[in-house]
Amino acid sequence: MPFDSLYSISKAAAFSLSQSLRALLAGRGISVYTVLPGPLDTDMSRNLDIPKASPESTAQAILDGVEKEDEEIFPDPMSEAIAEGWRSSAVKALQRQFAAYVAQTPIKSSATLASMRR
């Protein structure tokens, strides 16, 4: 969101973390899902004059995405409009390539090892 750079930075960091965790934890049989919603009808977006999805329909779409084992879940009409572009993007292909590398050569950081021991 160009008008809120700190919000955008935090979302980008969370997305990168989910990609890394997905690759690192796949060998343990742990799935990592990323939810990429568009605007939802909540207090945070109350003053935005744009189409918004309901929290209820978004929650149901998230559960449906987990059931289908979608790695990235686009749970509303606005985000779904970009989903296919993401799924067929060079960035997603690169993510798969790196994940395959991690599967062949497990890399464990000290922070990851510490959190897995808990």
Name the average pLDDT.
87
- Principal-axes geometry comes out as globular
Unreliable segments of 5+ consecutive residues: none
H-E order: HEHEHHH
Task: Compute the number of strand runs.
Answer: 2
Kindly provide the radius of gyration, computed on alpha-carbon positions and rounded to a whole number of angstroms. Answer: 16 Å
Distance between the termini: 36 Å
Q: Could you give a short account of the major beta sheet?
A: 2 strands, parallel
Number of helices: 5
Residue share in helix = 55-70%
Amount of beta strand: under 5%
Helix- and strand-based class?
mainly alpha
Strand line-up in the sheet with most strands: 1-2
What does this molecule look like?
The protein has helices at 5-25, 55-67, 77-87, 90-104, 110-117; strands at 34-35, 72-73. The longest helix is centred in the first third of the chain and has 21 residues, at 5-25. α2 (55-67) links the parallel β1 (34-35) and β2. The chain is built from 5 helices and 2 strands; from the N terminus they run αβαβααα. It has a two-stranded parallel ribbon with strand order 1-2. The radius of gyration is 16 Å and the shape is globular. It is mainly alpha-helical and 118 residues long. α1 (5-25) packs parallel to α4. The mean pLDDT is 87.
Give a nutshell description of this structure.
The chain contains 5 helices and 2 strands, in the order αβαβααα. The protein has 118 residues and is mainly alpha-helical. The protein has a two-stranded parallel sheet.
Q: Which structural traits does this protein have?
A:
single chain, about 120 residues, mainly alpha, two-stranded parallel sheet, 5 helices, 2 strands, globular
